[in-house]
Amino acid sequence: MTTSQLVEQIHLKQSFLCIGLDTDLKKIPVHLLEKQDPIFSFNKAIIDATHHLCVAYKPNTAFYEAYGIAGWKALQRTIGYLNENHPEIFTIADAKRGDIGNTSTRYAKAFFEDLQFDSITVAPYMGKDSVEPFLAFTDKHTILLALTSNDGAYDFQTKLIGGKELYKHVLETSKSYKNSENLMYVIGATKAEYLLEIRKIVPDSFLLVPGVGAQGGSLEEVCKYGINENIGLLINSSRGIIYASEGKDFAHAAASKAGALQNQMALVLKQMK
Amino acid sequence: MTTSQLVEQIHLKQSFLCIGLDTDLKKIPVHLLEKQDPIFSFNKAIIDATHHLCVAYKPNTAFYEAYGIAGWKALQRTIGYLNENHPEIFTIADAKRGDIGNTSTRYAKAFFEDLQFDSITVAPYMGKDSVEPFLAFTDKHTILLALTSNDGAYDFQTKLIGGKELYKHVLETSKSYKNSENLMYVIGATKAEYLLEIRKIVPDSFLLVPGVGAQGGSLEEVCKYGINENIGLLINSSRGIIYASEGKDFAHAAASKAGALQNQMALVLKQMK
């Protein structure tokens, strides 16, 4: 899926919402536990109820790996269901991978070729030759961690190197990587005020912004500082949407929460005209 | 497995060798491809031939994920085989994970509880609250990336923050994490001269050292600068051992390569007395 197709979808749906599928058997409605594949059953119901309100889904691989083979199968079924029924939706494997060259290539194959995701999140710590193997898949997108939404972000990401924060070095350095036009970046919504500076370095890139909702980030703030001509934002909400209700109305409740965010987004898009 | 049990094994086997099980269907002997589970068949043969020469095995998860469900099953069978037949061997999931708190907990469950690994490699970029969920499993070990063996290590890891390299900040900061006594660190053998400085910061910790062999690191150099009273080193070799031969003698050839390294290690241990 190309960036321009993504932008087209944003305008069509009046939404730049990404829904995080962090599916946890301890949090999904108990009646689903009787199903043969409770994780997929939950995801399918959420997707069926919300696909018209969002432009992206982001399963976090940790939640699937925690259930071993059954989890991996549920992930495979989920991405398969999305690609078959909603090929216009951008899919993100939130995997935060990264390793030396030949090994990163294996991860890229796993998520781009085997599972057919449109994109994957990647950690930058190991540098250029750990990221470029993902970028070598030129019809896919690589979403590099820059400034994350958690408190631990202040441990290293905001430390000054030659008067400039590490995450800014990550943004700048990554622009010189081969096929860097296919990079996007993770920027936590809990640090919206940083977006002004970030946009000076990567004015045109898409930013995947987690942390709205459960983690306390503000949609208005993120849009105020982060939006660009192509919108350039994918705002993610996971727990705030998918666990809106523990009852049999969970999918309806999720759609209601997603709809509220989509409404806010439509307003933002209208004001841009 | 405790650190003192690991040290005991090192003295018993006169080896601090870790064998990396980076199993690639394109590189294993072709006659194995006829087996029902070629990846596990290869791993089992390598383990059967080398277990007396090493104290640790390190499957890199990327190689297994690249084969989807079949790969995940092969990883499960491999760790199961190791835990059943060689419980005295230290097992490392080379997964380089790391995410916000609740998500890191899921990864920790996947590798420590579901797969029953003794340890996992973790990326430090997201800081304290991304690492501590792994350390919360106090009978396990968390192996933090500090200075990696690839060229990309110079992109960010060696950059100066207040006159000190980022990887040194990672080492120092991580010492304040809860249960930090269960931390080990990845230090690439290709940068052996850095070990003098590193040992000033983490004198007692175990270091997992990849990059000897195929990547050009020197065993002598690593031992000269990195060894401590408890040995404190796990030297990893992957491709140099497991792909020593493409023929039917592959396991024997692997044992021969592993044996050569173990001999060198036994000499080093003898010189220490």
Automatic annotation (TrEMBL), chains A, B:
Pfam family, one: OMPdecase
Keyword Lyase: yes
Single annotated GO MF: orotidine-5'-phosphate decarboxylase activity
Reactions catalysed according to its record: orotidine 5'-phosphate + H(+) = UMP + CO2
Domain of life: Bacteria
UniProt keyword Signal, yes or no: no
Gene Ontology BP terms: 'de novo' pyrimidine nucleobase biosynthetic process; 'de novo' UMP biosynthetic process
EC numbers, comma separated: 4.1.1.23
Metabolic or biological pathway: Pyrimidine metabolism; UMP biosynthesis via de novo pathway; UMP from orotate: step 2/2
Keyword list, A-Z: Decarboxylase, Lyase, Pyrimidine biosynthesis
Orotidine 5'-phosphate decarboxylase domain residues: 16-254
Recorded family membership: Belongs to the OMP decarboxylase family. Type 2 subfamily.
NCBIfam families xref list: pyrF_sub2
Protein name: Orotidine-5'-phosphate decarboxylase
